[in-house]
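Lecture notes, structural biology module. Today: joint structure prediction for complexes of two components.
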Amino acid sequence: MTQKQAKANRENAKKSTGPRTRSGKGRSSQNSIKHGLNQALDLEHDNRFIILLRLVKEDGYSHDEAYSILSAILDHRRVMEACYEQYHAPKEIFGRAEAGMIRELEGHHESGRTTLSYNDRLSFGRFKARAKRTNERLGSVLVQRVRRLGKLIRYQRRSIAQIHRATQKNVK
Amino acid sequence: MTEDKLKQSLAILNPIRTVKLKDKTGNFEAILQGLLSDLETPNTLSVLLCEQIAESIFWMRRHVEDKELILLEATAEKLDKAQQIGFRDDRTYSAEDIKQVLLGDETLKQQINDKLKDTSNSIATSFDSCRAKAFVSCAKEIRIADDLIQRQMLNIRHLQRSLDAIDMKSRIIRRMDLELERIERDLTVLEHDPEAG
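The predicted structure, tokenised, for the full assembly:
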């Protein structure tokens, strides 16, 4: 990349002011959320909760009893749904895009469309070795699943304890 | 009798299902139906709790399978590494092969051991040493898997207690309803008793 191109890139980047529309801002505000399990539950606008609350009250429970038990169960649902998502999340692979680009460039080099210098090939080789080491450390899809789910154990503990407390307190 | 209970429970549960697992094996449904058929007095909360218990059992089985598979894959990887002299990315053995050996396939085990001896690689010289090394290399993940299994067991235990409390509550409510009905009936009889007064 020439100095002129680098300067142009920096100037263009300064013009970027992030998302402008309401929906764009809404989307980008969710960027750093991993599982959202530390956020408070919004039960007032949850149709499922409203329906369940009515049904449980019809079974003879008071509003407070039904509210506390159901909010605990729905919190547990949120945790278990996050577990399900984490379990089925795609395998994390380091340098997937870069490896594709390198393969493409090497293909062009072999067919004579471009010429790769010795230093280019050396840095490609180094990158491939680094990617291999990092991917070995990241582990197989099974290992990654187990590690991700392990991080959610404490949320399961919390939600189950809430259900237990709510049922024992309200039902006795 | 059990089928009636199951139908009754499913009629309550189906419109309000909270667990949506994409389980092609049908294990979850089988566990759930087994639990629902044992419910004495099905109501909204008890069927919801049964659903959560069934999910926990499902996850516990899944974690046990994953734990076993992690160990098998790690063993297969160690065997491959022990047999390779240069850099190769392809795999000679799969987790299924390792499972066969562990189930008692002596021929395959002998074959693997012979190949390892021929390679004379310093990493490992037998199937058992590869397995021991694999166990060490994935000990952390196995511990996490054990924690996950333990967590599901505790989840089940807590949910069972909650279900017991809910079930007891339902019975108390039912008993009180019957009691009220009896009192009302007695009152009506008293009001319309021609001999009274």
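Point to remember: The interface with chain B takes residues 48, 51-52, 55-56, 58-61, 69, 73-74, 76-77, 80, 83-84, 139-140, 142-143, 145-147, 149-150, 153, 156-157, 160-161, 163-164, 167-168, 171-172 of chain A (CB under 8 Å).
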